[in-house]
Amino acid sequence: MTAPIDRRLLLKTGAFGLGALSLPGGAMAAMQAALTKGFSHGVASGEPSQNSILLWTRFVSDLAETRLKAEISETATFRKIVAGAEAVATPDRDYTAKTILRGLKPGRAYYYRFVAPDGSLSDTGRPRPLPQGPTERFRMAVFSCSNIGFGWFNAYAHAAAADDADCVLHLGDYLYEYQAGNYPNAAQVLPGRVVEPVTEIVALADYRQRHAQYCRDSDLRRLRQLFPIIAGWDDHESANDSWEGGAQNHQPATEGPWSVRKAAAMRAYREWMPVSERDWASYEIGDLATLFRLETRLSARAEPFNLGRLLSGKTAPDEVEAALSAFREGTWRDTARVMIGADQQAWLDAGLRTSRRSGKVWQVLVQQVLMGSLRTPLAVADWAGPDLPDFVRARIASGVAASRAGLPMNMDAWDGYPAARSRIFAAAQAADANLISLAGDTHNAWAFDLAEGGRPVGVEFGGQSVTSPGYESSFPRVAPDRITKALRETNPGLVFADTSRRGYMKVELTRTAARCEYRFVGNVRQKDPALAGTRTLVTLPGRRRLAET
C-alpha cells in the first residue's frame, strides 16, 4: 500500500528540474534508484581497531538486495588480495552497505574497494587499522560544523591534499537540518549550494536525501575515501539544541513525536556514515593513548536551560538580577542534571582508570561541546550595531546580564551542566589522567586550561567550523583581535581564541607532547583549499596546562 502524501513532503528537485516526492521508506529510495545506478557515493571507512575496520559504500540497483564483495590489498593495483568480506546493499537501508574487515595488521596502510556482481568497481579507499604496542606518534584531522549552504568545504580539501593524518575525527554537525532560506538565509547562501530537500528535514527520507547531497560534495567524498573516520553526532544531525526528549526547533504539533524524528535521524546517520551502532566507544592507540568517543546529545542529556525564557517579562534590573541569582544558586547547579547519563559515566570512569593503569600517556575525549567555561564580555553591550536582528540583540542582552551574575553564555554546552562536568573532571583527577578534550559546536577556535576544585584537570582544543559562521557574525564592525582580547580578559581559563576564521585542527600525540595546530582556510565563499594561517599550542604529560609554540 502506498503511503499517503503529506503536503510538506512535496518539493522541487533542483538538480533535475522535476517535481519529486520525499516519501517515507521505499518510495524515495525507488526514485533515487531511477536516477542513479551503481556505486553512487564513493567509499568510506571507520570504527578502526588494531585488527579490523568497518567499510562503507552505496550501490543502487533494481534488485531487492545486491551482494557486494569487499577486497583489501597492500598495493593500489590489487594484484594480491589479502583479505575480503561481503556487504549487502538493500533499499531498506537506502542502498548503503557496510561490512567489517578482520584479520588486518595493526597500523598497516591498506587499500580497499568494493566489487559488484556485474564486475563494476567502487572508488579505492585507504583503511588503516590502529597501531598496537609501542607507538611514537598518532595524528588526527579534527572537523566540525559543515553547513553546505555557507560555502565550500575547503577544510576537507586541504586535509585530503595534505595527507598527514592517521585518521579523521568528526565532532558533529556533519550536516544541518534547516530548510532553504534559514541558516543560511537567501542572501547568505552560496549559489549552487542550496539544500536538498528544500524543506526542513524531519522524516527518514528527508534525512537520507540531505546525507546524500552532502556525500556528493567532491571534497567530502575525497576525505571519506582517504582516511578512516571516528565520528559522533551533535545536534544538527537531528535538530537544533536537541536533547533526550526534544529539540529547540522540533514542533510536535506539526512535525509529529520527537521520538519518531530522533529515530529517523539516528537511522539515516548510521546508514550513511561509516559508524557502528554503539552510542559511545573507545579506541586504543597502541601504548600511547585512549580515545573516548562520547554521546552527549540524544541518549541522556537533560533539556538545556534557556536564559531568554528565564528572563522573559523581566525588565527591571533588580528583577533580572534576582532571577539570575536564584537560578545560579539553584537549578543551574542541580546535581541530578546529566549530559551523558549514569551508564556512560561509569564506562568513562572505568576507561580512564584502565587507560592510565596500562601506561597510556593520553586520555582523549572525542566529544561535541565545549567543556571550558565562557562568560560574555561586558563590552559586547557596546558592540551591537543597530542593524542586528532583534533575536541577536536579545541574546546579547541576556548574555551580558548572565555574565554580570557570574553565569556562562552558552547553556547548550557543558557550561549548562556544571555538576555533570565536575563528575568527569573528578574522574579524570582520580585516574591521574592526562586529559585532552576535543570539542566542536561553536564554530570558533578555542584552547582552554581545564581545572576542578582549584586543581588542573587537563586541556581542551575547541575546533573552528568547516563553514558555519562564528562569533564574529554578531559583531561585524568589531576587529577580531578586540573580540579575542575581551574574551580572554573575561575568562581566565581561556588561553587562545580565534573568532573569525574557518578550518580544522590537526592534533598530534607523541610520548612527550600533545600538539594542536589550528589550520585556517581563506574565504569559504571561494573554492580554494590553501591555508591562510596556523596557530599551534602544546601540552606536556603531567603538566595539564597549555603553552604556545
Give a brief rundown of this model.
24% of the residues lie in helices and 25% in strands. It contains 12 helices and 22 strands.
Explain what this protein looks like in three dimensions.
The protein has 549 residues and is α/β, with parallel strands linked by helices. The chain has a ten-stranded mixed sheet. It has a seven-stranded mixed sheet with strand order 12-13-14-15-17-16-18. Helix 2 runs parallel beside helix 4, helix 3 packs parallel to helix 6 and helix 9 runs parallel beside helix 11. The N terminus is likely disordered.
Name a few traits of the molecule.
22 strands; ten-stranded mixed β-sheet; alpha/beta; 549 residues; globular
List the helices and strands and how they pair.
Blueprint: E1 10-13, E2 18-21, H1 26-35, E3 38-46, E4 53-60, E5 66-73, E6 81-89, E7 96-101, E8 111-115, E9 137-143, H2 154-162, E10 167-170, H3 204-216, H4 218-226, E11 228-231, H5 252-255, H6 258-272, E12 281-285, E13 289-293, H7 307-310, H8 317-329, H9 341-357, E14 362-366, H10 390-404, H11 418-430, E15 435-439, E16 445-452, E17 455-462, H12 480-490, E18 494-498, E19 503-510, E20 514-521, E21 531-539, E22 546-548
Parallel strand pairs: 3-11, 9-10, 10-11, 13-14, 14-15, 15-17
Antiparallel strand pairs: 1-2, 3-4, 4-7, 5-6, 5-8, 9-19, 12-13, 16-17, 16-18, 19-20, 20-21, 21-22
Helix pairs in contact: 2-4, 3-6, 9-11
